Amino acid sequence: MNFKHHLKMKALSDLQLFIATVEAGSLSAAARKLGLTPAAASAALHRLEAELGAPLLLRSTRRQRITPQGELFLERARQAVDLLEVASQQIRCGQVVAQGSLQVSMPSDLGRHVLLPWLDEFMAAHPRIHLRLQVSDRLADVYGQPVDLAIRYGIPPDSDLVALPLAPDNRRVLVASPDHVRRLGALAHPEELQRRNCLCYVLGEQVHQRWRFWQDGQAFDVDVRGDRQADDGEVVHRWALAGLGIAYKSQLDVQADLRAGRLIRLCPGWQGEASPLNLLCADRRQLGPAVRLLHAFLAERLATWAA
To answer: In 10 A of CB 79, how many CB atoms?
Structure first.
């Protein structure tokens, strides 16, 4: 499905209807929410599916489920709606420039090595948006701390948080330096990690020592140990680059090193744990033009970075 080719053919209202239908669980509920008749809503959904050449939802009188094509289209549709709503609001308000101050919390490793250069570009393009960054692996409390947005890996711990996807398909990968592999060899199977020095990450009081992998739909857990642990992802990353052991890192964190050959991926035939990246906030009322612009900008950059 070529999203970019079809996007120009979509009205904002059609994309909003599709997203609302998925979120509400039924086309009729989405139609009521958007003030449409059931017939108009049904026609809009059929039109969208016809233009894409693929079914997005499978529906009966009582049930509906999203298709694999619909899942693929959903996140891109949300990103597109964010961009289009920002543009529409600016036009309605006489080309109002997005502005304001945002306090953003982000992970240490990803923040320093991937996001910071992009944020410099973002601020250069939007000089009236001011950012105050909190670069730390400590989980920010978006309710109790003066934090507007938190960029975090994993499923949000609080279901009441608003989560805007940035890299929904990101996963962890096993990595080691070329020197480490030359000295000790690669791995034929994840179970061999039990006999290797593993660099473990600590979140709060919990050491991430059980590493999970998948192959052919089957999960395999391995309990690892090593001589180094850190509560900072960047430290674990540096240890891996120095050849001091094997790390289990988000692919986004180590993508540049894998491309440059500074790190080697181990057990590439095994799939690592899911580690989706989201932009979190406490309330949808915070999703003003500045936030939507930042979300769309980062989502686009991360999609290219992970490709």
So the answer is: 21
H-only helix segments in 100-230:
108-110, 116-125, 178-184
Q: Would you state the torsion angle of the CA atoms of residues 98, 101, 106, 112, taken in this order, to the nearest 10 degrees?
A: 90
The pTM score is 0.68
Spatial separation of the C-alpha atoms in residues 32 and 9, rounded to whole Å: 24
Q: Which of 70, 92, 114 is the last residue of a domain?
A: 92
Instruction: Give residue 287's Cα distance to chain centre.
Output: 17
- DSSP label at residue 257: H
| Total Cβ atoms within 10 A of residue 3 | 14
Same domain for 185 and 267, yes or no, is yes
Residue 225 and residue 201 share a domain = yes
Same domain, 119 and 181: no
- Do 68 and 155 lie in a common domain? no
Nearest-CA neighbor of 193 among 230, 247, 238, 231? Answer: 247
For residue 191, which of 271, 267, 263 has the smallest C-alpha distance?
267
Q: How far is it, in rounded angstroms, from Cα 102 to Cα 1? A: 35
Residue 34 structure tokens: 């958007």
Domain coverage including residue 112: 100-169+276-306
3-state secondary structure 105-140: EECHHHHHHHHHHHHHHHHHHCCCEEEEEEECCCCC
- 229-287 pLDDT, tens digit per residue, is 999 999 999 999 999 999 999 999 999 999 999 999 999 999 999 999 999 988 787 78
**Helix 38-52 × helix 12-24 angle, to 10°:** 110
* Domains: count for the chain: 3
What angle do helix axes 27-34 and 12-24 make, rounded to 10 degrees?
130
Give tens-digit pLDDT for 94-150: 444 567 788 899 999 999 999 999 999 999 999 999 999 989 887 765 555 567 898
Query: How many whole angstroms from its chain centre is CA 191?
Result: 29
